[in-house]
Amino acid sequence: MVKAISTPLRIAVVIFVVLTAIFLLAPLVVVVGVSLSESQFIAFPPSSLSLRWYEQVLSSDSYVSAAWISLRVAILVTLTATLVGGAAAIAIHRRKLPFSGSLATFFLSPLVLPTIIYAIGMLMLWSAVFGPVSIVTLWLSHTVITIPYVVRTTLAVLSESNPFLEEAAQTMGANRLQRLWLVVVPQCRPGLVAGAFFAFNISFDEAVLALFLRKPGLTTLPVQIYGQLEFSPDPSVAAVSTIMIGLTIALILIIDRLLGVQKFASS
Amino acid sequence: MSDRAENTLLVLPGLLLLALAFFVPITQMLVLSVSGENGPTLDHFTRFLGDPYYLNVLWRTVRLSLIITVICAAVGFPLAYIMARVGPRLRLWLIVLVILPLMTSVVVRTFGWMVLLSRSGLVPQVLRDLGLAERNFSIMQTELAIVIGMVQVLLPFMTLSILGVVTRIDRRLEEAARTMGCTFMQTLRTVVFPLAVPGIVAGSLLVFTLSASSFVTPNLLGGSRIQVLAASIYRSVTQTLDWPFAAAQAVILFAGILLILVPYARLAGGRSNG
């Protein structure tokens, strides 16, 4: 196939891919560049290099506490979304419950609704019932929007798994809990792992719910960055952003080790 | 314990969580959008639809979202096709190229564009050096800035949606077309493109929805004068504290999205699994 492509076309393809790559990566490269700048002002390319903005970020109370909140929320969300979503996916996959088909749609529905609409609803309900928002509000709402990812990745893995293993285990005398824990859960593992990474990544980077459900003392890292960008961005914002990009790269590397990025991309 | 009980037990926590923390909040929002001081009212809706300022915001939202969707599709289709047809090593790099921005926070990526597009930034500077722009030229605080930033944010969604469909196209179909005398471009147009339509539709639905409902990038790149609907909702919630009006705008946003998406999905032959 590829051999039959004419040379001009091939050159056009190369140019297209290079331009798209520049377009997609430019903002990230620029952020990293600015974070290494010595200057007081945001400038790219930086005129001289230094790590002073990283020092500033690590000694800044507001950034450190925001990072701590983001991390706590993301870990809680990852645990609950994987547990709740994984369990639901197993039950949905067995198709033994009434309305199994609509159950899948039900669990994927948070994907369809724009987050901003859900964010308003959550803020209004929480204020009406419980009063001021708290870390629990953020935890619950991030869990809601990440459950669909876990359900989807787990269902995808289960649909390719051997359905007779569970029956075989039953014939050989495994009880319900043993079957679930020793047969079904290991079958789900790649889906659960992929879902967990999605959940962590989405919760840690999410800005919309976090912006609506914020209050003094409940500021996640993306909200802190957004606030800085609205008023007085200095290179310290770039340093925090670079740390977040670094975390994303680390996540992608881990995913590639565990599952292979290609598989992850297709789910 | 029966099978039924076991499965119910597995599905119940998620069912309760989504019912209480997803469907109840949305219902609450719907109720609030029609509630006034003296019982139910449609005042918030008539206020929005009767005000040229808000109609202009709505029109801008629809227009920009359409432009962003079209550009994403025009770039995403060839990119996805190339990804599907190159060797495994290069494909891996291209997938990383698409996933890395996708998994990076929108706030961070928008910041990158703020630096690039600002008056002293790289893009206006290059344009000035090339003699394509005047000295005071700036892209920040324009609709163009919003489009550039949003296309970068949403292109990965489009590309992955199309890639999922294109990888499943049987290569032998293309070879057959070539053997029977089609040029490469003819094959692309008459064989690959029609088969990729479900992916393009799914990607467009996703990109349009995400684009119409986002406010972080438009707010930071477009500034407060160029408002889109989602930004106006955010302002009503956080600045003017007019929650019923915010709820009404959210309902209008969702109704608007459905109004455009449903006929489009129908037209293109139903919603595909993307």
TrEMBL record, chain A:
Where does it live in the cell?
Cell inner membrane; Cell membrane
What keywords were assigned to this record?
A: Cell inner membrane, Cell membrane, Membrane, Transmembrane, Transmembrane helix, Transport
Name the SUPFAM superfamilies on file: MetI-like
How this chain sits in the membrane, per its record, is: Multi-pass membrane protein
- Transmembrane regions: 12-36, 69-92, 104-126, 138-159, 180-204, 236-255
Q: Which Pfam families match?
A: BPD_transp_1
The record ties this protein, via InterPro entries, to: MetI-like, MetI-like_sf
Q: Where is the ABC transmembrane type-1 domain?
A: 67-255
Write out the GO biological process terms: transmembrane transport
One GO cellular component term noted in the UniProt record for this chain? plasma membrane
**The family this protein is said to belong to:** Belongs to the binding-protein-dependent transport system permease family.
The protein's name is ABC transporter permease
Q: Which organism is it from?
A: Stappia taiwanensis
UniProtKB/TrEMBL annotation, chain B:
Q: Where does the UniProt annotation place the signal sequence?
A: none
Which family is it part of? Belongs to the binding-protein-dependent transport system permease family. CysTW subfamily.
Q: Which GO terms describe its cellular component?
A: plasma membrane
> What keywords is this UniProt entry annotated with?
Cell membrane, Membrane, Transmembrane, Transmembrane helix, Transport
Indicate the segments forming the ABC transmembrane type-1 domain, all copies. 58-264
Stored InterPro entries: MetI-like, MetI-like_sf
Residue ranges annotated as coiled coil are none
Q: What is its main location?
A: membrane
* Topology class, membrane: Multi-pass membrane protein
Localization terms from the record:
Cell membrane
> Which Gene3D superfamilies does UniProt cross-reference here?
MetI-like
Highest taxon above the source species: Bacteria
CDD domains in the record = TM_PBP2
Q: Which SUPFAM superfamilies match?
A: MetI-like
Q: Name its GO BP terms in alphabetical order.
A: transmembrane transport
This protein is called what? ABC transporter permease
* Listed transmembrane segments: 57-80, 92-116, 144-166, 187-210, 243-265
